[in-house]
Each structure stands twice: as C-alpha cells, then as structure tokens.
Amino acid sequence: MASGANKPVMLVGVDDSEHSVYALKWTLDNFFVPFSSNHPYKLIIVHARPTVTMAVGFAGPGVAEALPYVEADLKRQVTKVLDKMKEICSKKSVQDVVVEVHEGDGRNVLCDAVDKHHASILVVGSHGYGTIKRAVLGSVSDYCAHHAHCSVMIVKKPKTKQ
Amino acid sequence: MDPYADLKTPPTTAATVSDVPGGVGAEESTVVGMVMQQPVADMGARTPEEEIRKMKVMVALDESDGSFYALRWTLDHLFRGRTLEENDRLGRVTVVHVQQPFQQYVFPAGPGGSVRPCSHLRCTYTYAAFYASSAVVESVKKAQEENATFILSRALQMCREKLVKAESLIMNGDPKDMLCQATEQMHMDLLVVGSRGLGMIKRAFLGSVSDYCAHHAKCPILIVKPPKEVTNK
C-alpha cells in the first residue's frame, strides 16, 4: 500500500479559495516543517479543475465563440492556484511535492485520487458553510469525509473573532 | 532513569467539571475537567520561525473498536518518534471519553414491564414510566464510571506502549457538544474521531457524533476510517 518511496501518502485537496491555502499551510506546519528533511509522508496536492461545461452557465447562440475564452481563463486560474501552492511549499522548504490537476467535480476527483495513490490521509479545507448553503452548494469536505476510503482531515480556517 | 516517570506526576491544576472522583486508581496523570493554561494561540499568525510547536491532539473514545483503532492510527502516524522525548517534542495526546447522563426514568419495554409484587391485584403497568429509585441510579452511575475508567486506562496503556505522553479526561453530557466545547476550551490543535461509533449501521458512512463534530468543531478534525474489510470491494 505504500508508494514507491515507501512513505505513506498524504493527499491535500485544493481549490482556489483562502481555505485551501490555510489548509495547506496548516498541514505543512504540522506534518512537514517539524521534521526538516525527513518527512514522514509523501505530499501530493490535487486540484480539481472545473470542466468548461461546468463553468459555462448559459446556453445560446454565442456559446461556441465564448468557449475558447472560458477555456483560457480556466487555464489561467489553474496556473495561478498551482503557482501559489508551489510557492507555499517552497517557502516552507518542502521539496519533492507532486501536484496534480484533474478535470471534474472536486468530490469525485479527490476520492479517485485517494484510490489511485492509496493515500493514507486526505486533507481538505472547509468553507464552513452552514446547513442551507451546504445543501445548495454542496460540500466537498462533507462528501469526502463520508466516501473517501482513507482517513480524512478537515482543516478549518478559524473565523476572526470580533 | 524511568522513562515513564513524567506520566506518574499528578496534575497541577484541576477544576472538576464532572462528578467523577479524581482518585480512580490510574497511575497516569488523570485530568478531570482540567483547563489547560496555555496562551491563546493566534491562529492566523503562525510562522515557521517560531519554535517547534507541540501539536495538541484530542482523541475521542467510546466503547467501540473504531475509536480505539483511531487512537492507534493517531499514535502510529502522528507520533513516529522512537523515544518518549522525540514524541514529546511532537506533541501531546489527550484521550477523552464522554459519558452520557443516565436517564432518570426508565420506560419498561414489552408487556408486564413492571409487575407489582402483590400478585393478587394482577395489574401490570405495561406503559407506565416510573422514576428509577436512587439505588438504581447509583449503581448505573457506578457502572458508567467503571466503564469510563476501563476505556481510558486501556487507552493510556496503548499510549504508553507507543511511547507517547497522554492525559485522560472524562466528561458528562452529550458527546457532540462536549467534544466541540472541549476542543475550544482546551485549545486543541486537532480532534481525532473514529468514523462510526456505537451505531454501527452498515449504510451509515459516518457516525452522528463524527458528523456533527466535522461540521461544528472549530479546530481541524481527523476522521479515521477502519480498514476496509476483505469481503468488500
């Protein structure tokens, strides 16, 4: 069940929100930084990229022309996210990080990635939605907590106290 | 030098929150309702230049195997040092068990739930709820305390075997609320729960307490799933 380097795999699921950034930083601080170079886990960052059809909310005669722009914009967003993650890792001097991008819905992408890499832990951030938002927007962290085949760590960004 | 000497020192502060007596006979430092006197962690401003922070992990236990598996998993994966000192630098573990308060009344199940001793009356209170006598309450409380002590001593034993310093805590009340409150009050860095507890319904992927804590706990939460059974896919 171990990966090639014989280390257990820790998968971190990220999107483009501040919550993911916080989750990644927290994970690095607690599981990688204290161990200097001898990290106990192999870190894999997985980003779920929305497909073009998901991003385009309208249908009509103008769609065909709009698609390449949407595609380019999505690509730019993804690159931005990946660069940010790589920057965070290098700031904490964590090398040897694998970053993956998959198309599709975050829930499925993360659960499939867990199976593919035989991860021991999946780390996700949490938007902290309430019950109604959760029902309407859906919650990736909730889905993963229920359905992933490995232990799940949900990292929450603390709300600033008044 | 006795490597476990530190575990035998009594706690320095204790503010009893529950009614469990302090002297439960455990040699480890048993903390009952202790409020940790740590400075409030400023979550947003952590930088790696600070000294290596100890991670404070709280592991929630009940009688189920799932929670003990969660504890074992935590000790194996989070505290991989080879000595007590190495693990101590990584952090501390607090094992917590939440007792549910005993219902003061009992609803007899089935016919003839409470047959009066004088049989000539021949009336059976099939649907009457009666208040449990104080003797019953006492004995149930005692059984609960023994149960809690047994669970926690098993847990502390496991921690000792894996060379991790641990403290234990017993609380009374609804597990969901108590766990969320405890992590907040004690400024825990991580809460570890099993995925299914006593309600081992096959179709439920996540137990109610774990689910509630995943939504409501203010600190990061780790849900440990039991290993896949061989019969499943």
Automatic annotation (TrEMBL), chain A:
It comes from the Eukaryota. CDD domains: USP_At3g01520-like (cd23659). Pfam families: Usp (PF00582). Residues 10-156 form the UspA domain. This is UspA domain-containing protein.
Automatic annotation (TrEMBL), chain B:
Residues 1-22 are annotated as: Disordered. Residues 141-225 form the UspA domain. InterPro entries: Rossmann-like_a/b/a_fold, Universal_stress_UspA, UspA. CDD domains: USP_At3g01520-like. This is Universal stress protein A-like protein isoform X1. It comes from Punica granatum.
